């Protein structure tokens, strides 16, 4: 039985409001700082309300970039991050769902051995295999390319494992019904399994898109051409401006712009994301 105590409701709301405040305050400060000039942020007290240079700052970031960081336009870096994140996300989901389909619905020698080989790679993060992966990319002449940015990060044991677990919950009666209707493996996969996996795909899409968008180490290693710099690399270059003082109004503006695509993806797929995490439609 759940007790309905008024003071518990008040306490719960106070804790939630404090949590929202601590989470949103850094975002608020980034928004405010991006609308001021460099002098306003170098003296005390730091402004807590919007300034009058927001339009100029964002126009400079999107069109001309920051001279202290090489002058690479932020819009170009965001486009590179978007291409890399979408390539990684779509590639991971496509490879994982096909691998899980083969493991669950086809009988071939060493089937479970292949699954456990895929599963073991969960223990090998990118940082552990980064040197041999870089050597392969160099030999394939894929440095400074979108293929070099995305292909090494496409394989995903986690997504394969999640799809396998979901496919194993699909009733055998559904498979038999598809056979009676003379649905072949490809038709069963496209017309039945993919629609059933809609919420799982949405949940994985959000998680994998944010994973690809926030990548820093791998793009830093495989790109030397400024035309392929990502937005996370751009923020790091702005903060390490050598002997010059960091241009915090531009750094905060770039951070705000970098938050827009992930937030848009989360808001657009929020309902499917929650369904994919809390239930399994069949």
UniProtKB/TrEMBL annotation:
Superkingdom of the source?
Answer: Bacteria
Q: Where is the ABC transmembrane type-1 domain?
A: 78-269
Instruction: Tell me the first and last residues of the signal peptide.
Output: none
rRNA-binding as UniProt keyword:
no
* GO terms of biological process kind: transmembrane transport
Q: Where in the cell is it found?
A: Cell inner membrane; Cell membrane
Which UniProt keywords are listed?
Answer: Cell inner membrane, Cell membrane, Membrane, Transmembrane, Transmembrane helix, Transport
Transmembrane region(s): 12-33, 82-106, 113-134, 146-167, 188-213, 247-269
Q: Sorted alphabetically, which Gene3D superfamilies does this protein's record hold? A: MetI-like (1.10.3720.10)
UniProt cross-references to InterPro entries, sorted A to Z: MetI-like, MetI-like_sf
**Cellular component, GO annotation:** plasma membrane
The primary location reported for this protein is membrane
Membrane-topology annotation of the record: Multi-pass membrane protein
Q: What does this protein do?
A: Part of the ABC transporter complex UgpBAEC involved in sn-glycerol-3-phosphate (G3P) import. Probably responsible for the translocation of the substrate across the membrane.
Q: Which family does it belong to?
A: Belongs to the binding-protein-dependent transport system permease family.
Subunit (UniProt): The complex is composed of two ATP-binding proteins (UgpC), two transmembrane proteins (UgpA and UgpE) and a solute-binding protein (UgpB).
Instruction: Indicate what this protein is called per its UniProt record.
Output: sn-glycerol-3-phosphate transport system permease protein UgpE
């Amino acid at each position: 039985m759940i007790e309905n105590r008024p003071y518990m409701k008040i306490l719960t709301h106070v804790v939630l409001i404090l949590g929202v405040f601590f989470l949103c305050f850094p975002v608020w400060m980034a928004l405010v700082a991006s609308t001021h000039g460099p002098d306003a942020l170098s003296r005390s007290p730091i402004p807590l309300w919007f300034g009058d240079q927001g339009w100029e700052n964002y126009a400079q970031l999107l069109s001309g970039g920051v001279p202290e960081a090489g002058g690479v336009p932020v819009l170009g870096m965001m486009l590179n991050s978007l291409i890399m994140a979408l390539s990684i996300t779509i590639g991971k989901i496509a490879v994982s769902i096909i691998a899980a389909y083969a493991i669950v619905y086809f009988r071939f020698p060493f089937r479970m051995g292949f699954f456990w080989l895929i599963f073991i790679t969960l223990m090998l993060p990118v940082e552990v295999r980064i040197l041999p992966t870089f050597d392969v990319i160099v030999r394939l002449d894929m440095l400074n390319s979108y293929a070099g940015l995305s292909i090494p990060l496409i394989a995903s044991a986690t997504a394969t494992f999640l799809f396998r677990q979901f496919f194993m919950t699909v009733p055998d009666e559904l498979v038999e019904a598809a056979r009676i209707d003379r649905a072949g493996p490809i038709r069963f996969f496209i017309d039945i399994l993919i629609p059933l996996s809609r919420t799982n795909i949405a949940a994985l899409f959000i998680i994998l898109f944010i994973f690809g968008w926030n990548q820093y180490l791998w793009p830093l290693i495989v790109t030397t051409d400024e035309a392929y710099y990502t937005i996370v690399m751009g923020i790091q270059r702005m903060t390490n401006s050598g002997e010059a003082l960091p241009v915090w109004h531009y750094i905060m503006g770039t951070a705000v712009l970098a938050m827009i695509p992930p937030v848009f993806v989360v808001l657009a797929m929020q309902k499917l994301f929650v369904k994919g995490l809390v239930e399994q439609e069949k």
